């Protein structure tokens, strides 16, 4: 199945945890929150089992990172007229920005703690 993509739009292939995929076209000016709302409002029929109660809990993951609602596709420098793959998950809150750093410190044994003599 061959589709022609509009040159000034970004084709997003969204993948659910279940492995189901669907493609949507978006403008570089669309934010992660805009995308979540559009997908929620146009929920695919074959995703019925994964339907969520609100667009506000839909989160996009791109290159292993959660996207905050105000991040636009243009800010990510995604190629126009090409397909970009992202994961779509239901999650109430985003992880804390420094939680990854905290995990890394735990693995390396580094600590910000005092030494008591």
From TrEMBL:
CDD domains: Ubl_UBL3. Its main location: membrane. PROSITE patterns: UBIQUITIN_2 (PS50053). One of its GO terms (cellular component) is plasma membrane. Keywords: Cell membrane, Lipoprotein, Membrane, Methylation, Palmitate, Prenylation. It is a lipid-anchor. It is found in: Cell membrane. Residues 10-88 form the Ubiquitin-like domain. SUPFAM superfamilies: Ubiquitin-like (SSF54236). This is Ubiquitin-like protein. It comes from Esox lucius.
């Amino acid at each position: 199945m061959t589709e022609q993509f509009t040159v000034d739009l970004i084709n997003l292939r969204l993948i659910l945890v279940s492995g189901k995929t669907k493609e949507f076209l978006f403008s570089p000016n669309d934010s992660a929150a805009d995308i979540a709302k559009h997908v929620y409002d146009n929920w695919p029929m074959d995703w019925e089992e994964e339907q969520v109660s609100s667009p506000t809990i839909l989160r996009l993951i791109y290159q292993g990172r959660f996207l905050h609602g105000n991040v636009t596709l243009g800010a990510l420098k995604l190629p126009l007229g090409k397909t970009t793959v992202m994961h779509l998950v239901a999650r109430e809150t985003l992880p804390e920005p420094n939680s990854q750093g905290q995990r890394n410190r735990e693995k390396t044994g580094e600590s910000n703690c005092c030494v008591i003599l």
